[in-house]
Amino acid sequence: MLLVPSISVIEGKTIRLTQGDYKREKVYEKTPIDVAKEFEDHGIKRIHLIDLDGARKGTTVNFDTLHLISVYTDLIINFTGGMHTDGDVLKAFEYGAESITAASVAVSNKEQFGNWLMSYGREKVALAADSLEGKIRIRGWQKATTTDLFDHVAYFYERGLKYLKTTDISKDGAMGGPSFDLYERLLKEFPDLSIFASGGVRQIDDIKRLRDIGLYGVIFGKAYYEGSITLKDIDDYQSTIA
């Protein structure tokens, strides 16, 4: 199972939100590039870079941060936040993203996201389907929808989707543990999906349990920034899968 740290960015700074609430943001001292280098030094191969400005505004903002990390590290970068046009996606690739994850456009313009899967390939385009009480939320989780999580995933699964990142928003940043039952249900319903769990990871044991469930990867953030998962934990975990 892939271990993928997330780096969330607002105005070029490393930020963490709790349950997607921009009023509950915490700014960390280290810059995104410093954090990225730290991860790379401890065997991490890929990161999930989140443009929180872009997610909220509906147009990507932090391309410069993406470019810096791509230039000064050898990390594989999955980039997300505010991409709604072909120009956004092409610019993300131009600035160093290996792949992109999109959420809002897959709800507001299903045809556009479906075209991206075909045009750029299922290895390059992942779906973020983040939900609260089973209903998809978009625009950095600020906008509620009536779209059912499983119906939404099924629509793109039938059209060749390979990678899914999904968060139970009630778990995100709360340090109460991931939504293990949700991931088990998703794996049962969509056995050919490569699923990344996100939200609620407290410690390395949660990561091991997600691995045992059969997930493709886990994205974690707050547990690292708050010290519940340490660089030593990452080293030890990497050594078990080397």
Could you characterize what this model shows?
- This protein has 242 residues and is an alpha/beta fold.
- It has one domain (2-241): Aldolase class I (TIM Barrel), CATH 3.20.20.
- It contains eleven helices and 13 strands.
- The strands form two sheets. It has an eight-stranded parallel barrel with strand order 1-4-5-6-7-11-12-13, surrounded by six helices. A three-stranded antiparallel beta sheet has the order 8-9-10.
- α1 packs parallel to α3 (63-72).
- The termini are close together.
Short description:
39% of the residues lie in helices and 28% in strands. With 242 residues, it is of the alpha/beta class. The chain has a single domain, classed as TIM Barrel (Alpha-Beta Barrel), CATH 3.20.20.70.
Main attributes?
242 residues, 3-stranded antiparallel β-sheet, TIM Barrel, alpha/beta, single chain
Low-confidence runs of at least 5 consecutive residues? none
Residues in helix, %: 25-40%
Main sheet record:
8 strands, parallel, barrel
* C-alpha-based Rg, rounded: 16 Å
**Widest sheet: strand order?**
1-4-5-6-7-11-12-13
> How many beta strands in the DSSP annotation?
13
What is the topological layout?
Blueprint: E1 2-10, E2 13-18, E3 21-27, H1 32-41, E4 46-51, H2 52-57, H3 63-72, E5 76-80, H4 86-94, E6 99-102, H5 104-108, H6 110-120, E7 125-128, E8 131-132, E9 135-138, E10 143-148, H7 149-157, E11 163-167, H8 180-189, E12 194-198, H9 204-213, E13 217-220, H10 222-225, H11 231-241
Parallel strand pairs: 1-4, 1-13, 4-5, 5-6, 6-7, 7-11, 11-12, 12-13
Antiparallel strand pairs: 1-2, 2-3, 8-9, 9-10
Helix pairs in contact: 1-3
